[in-house]
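Students often ask what a holo structure prediction actually looks like on paper. The answer is less mysterious than it sounds. You provide the chain, you provide the ligand, and the output is a string of discrete structure tokens encoding the 3D arrangement of the protein together with PRP.
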Amino acid sequence: MATHYYTVTWDQLHRDGRALAWRLMERGPVRGVVAITRGGLIPAAIVARELEIRLIESVSVVTYDEEARGEPVVVKAPAAAGDGEGFVIIDDLVDTGTTARIVRALLPRAAFACIYAKPAGRDIADVFVTEVSQDTWILFPWDTEPQFVAPLAKRPPG
Ligand SMILES: O=P(O)(O)OC[C@H]1O[C@H](OP(=O)(O)OP(=O)(O)O)[C@H](O)[C@@H]1O
Ligand SMILES: Nc1nc2[nH]cnc2c(=O)[nH]1
Ligand SMILES: [Mg+2]
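The corresponding structure tokens follow.
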């Protein structure tokens, strides 16, 4: 169970997504990307734009219902990525690595890249940008909205 939250803004996601594109470019040519929906869609769009990739495939794996982890279900397999040769699988984050392992098994020759990584899943990623602790829950901009917060002096202690 997460004990703290790490809120990512649109600006930060865009900057970190571009950093991921830099790192991927340094590894060599990429023919296409496979986005793990839904969280990988926007990171994949940022990478595809930077690397001028037009070949974009998707795979849908549902593993979590909000913060509760369940049995992963492949809702849509990647149709046009073959064995993954020349492709990079992209997700927003790796936590336990369950989702990434399932997609890697579907596309054994593809690389796997994500923006954020927690220690339990970090080693499954060929490339990532920022590590956060295992007890942190990352909140993406599509899951949040700016709202009023009380001044520190008016908040209850703790
Ligand atoms: O490493 P893991 O423990 O498998 O967790 C990481 C996965 O969990 C989240 O997806 P989620 O199942 O919440 O679906 P979503 O992308 O549609 O929000 C996230 O986008 C990753 O795909
Ligand atoms: N949004 C979000 N989804 C996740 N799925 C697994 N871990 C996380 C996390 O830290 N944040
Ligand atoms: Mg996901």
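DSSP finds four helices and eight strands in the chain.
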